[in-house]
Design goal:
Blueprint (H helix, E strand, L loop, with lengths): L6 E9 L1 E2 L6 E2 L3 H4 L8 H10 L3 E9 L6 E11 L2
């Protein structure tokens, strides 16, 4: 019987839009700038996944239906099941 690798999948969505009173600002550098309650950026979180053995397999833009603009990037990771 063939040995089949089974995978765990994990995703992480990163907001790249700053909504204000004027036109929304799209800025992919928010991944390094925005911090959560614990002071972690999305970059910190993505690096933790990589250090925990997760391999990045894709980055998918999430687009709004009404304007067609990208507002999030969805990072998808995989790692073999133990």
């Amino acid at each position: 019987m063939e040995n089949i690798t089974r995978w765990q999948l994990q995703t992480h969505a990163v907001n790249i839009v700053k909504v204000g009173f004027t036109v929304p600002e799209i800025n992919p550098t928010f991944i390094w700038e925005r911090k959560d309650k614990e002071g972690k950026t999305d970059w910190d979180k993505l690096n933790k996944l990589a250090n925990d053995g997760w391999e990045l397999v894709s980055v998918t833009p999430i687009v709004t239906a009404h304007s067609g603009q990208t507002f999030q990037l969805l990072y998808t990771f995989k790692r073999p099941l133990p």
